[in-house]
Amino acid sequence: MRLALILAASAASLCAQLAPPNDAGVSIGHIHLMSADPEAQKKIFVGALGAEVTHSGSLELLRLPGVFMIVGKARGPVEGSEGSAVPHFGFLVKDPRAMHAKLAAAGLTFSGENATTGQFMAHFPDNVVIEFTPDASLDMPLKFHHIHIGTPDMEKGRAWYVKTFGARSGSRGAFLSAFIPGGEVDFRKTDAAQAPTKGRALDHIGFEVKGLEAFCKKLEAEGYKFEIPYREMPQLGGLKLAFLVDPDGVRIELTEGLAGR
């Protein structure tokens, strides 16, 4: 009996909940994809990455350590993440060779493969690009790591996330970074503004916010404009949400209610 409890606890840790929020009440929440074939995306996230399927009311969620994936049905063909303000996002992975083999068996193609470090980019259906970075210290197969934003002004981009979400300012290598519990938002300098994310395969990113209604009222009082104002969604298990767009055209969903699911 005790062994069964230990194994159950270990399994639960592999699908760890979202990180505790920062002082502003914010943590990494989810990545929302729009796909011509959601089942094809889901099959890879579940089969190769080990995502656990769960629900918030009628909303299906794919739970991975540190983040939820949501895959919606696109009405038609969608453009991939490359060329948009969020060209990719990334996970840390304990065994990069094993992960590469699983993804190759699923029919994915790769780019940016580094034979020395083991880092690589995998091209998922709808040309959603995901980066996998080795980290032998992980106590689980993989863990969410970062959201990558392309912008002509890295300082401005980072400052907005620090001011808006209480992120900690820092850097990762050559990238300026805004650290938010559960991961980081990294900024890469581009020569020109990139395409907005709305309507693409990677439609938006999401942050979980404790006390979302009060948080939104605070931002509105400071002059922020919401694409979709705060609302409660009984059909989604009581999930609360709001949408805004960052200065580089990254669509952002704020939620309250994903944590603990």
> Low-confidence segments, ≥5 residues, pLDDT <50?
1-15
* Tally of DSSP β-strands: 16
Structural class based on helices, strands and sheet pairing: alpha+beta
Average predicted local confidence, pLDDT: 93
Features:
single chain; 261 residues; alpha+beta; 2,3-Dihydroxybiphenyl 1,2-Dioxygenase, domain 1; eight-stranded mixed sheet; 16 strands
Describe the structure.
By secondary structure, the protein is α+β, with helices and mostly antiparallel strands. The chain has a single domain, classed as 2,3-Dihydroxybiphenyl 1,2-Dioxygenase, domain 1 (Roll), CATH 3.10.180. About 20% of the residues lie in helices and about 40% in strands. The protein contains five helices and 16 strands. The strands form two sheets. An eight-stranded mixed β-sheet has the order 2-3-4-1-13-16-15-14, with helices on one face. An eight-stranded mixed β-sheet has the order 6-7-8-5-9-12-11-10, with helices on one face. The protein is globular.
Give the structure's gist in a few sentences.
With 261 residues, this protein is α+β, with helices and mostly antiparallel strands. It has five helices and 16 strands. It has an eight-stranded mixed β-sheet with strand order 2-3-4-1-13-16-15-14, with helices on one face. It has an eight-stranded mixed β-sheet with strand order 6-7-8-5-9-12-11-10, with helices on one face.
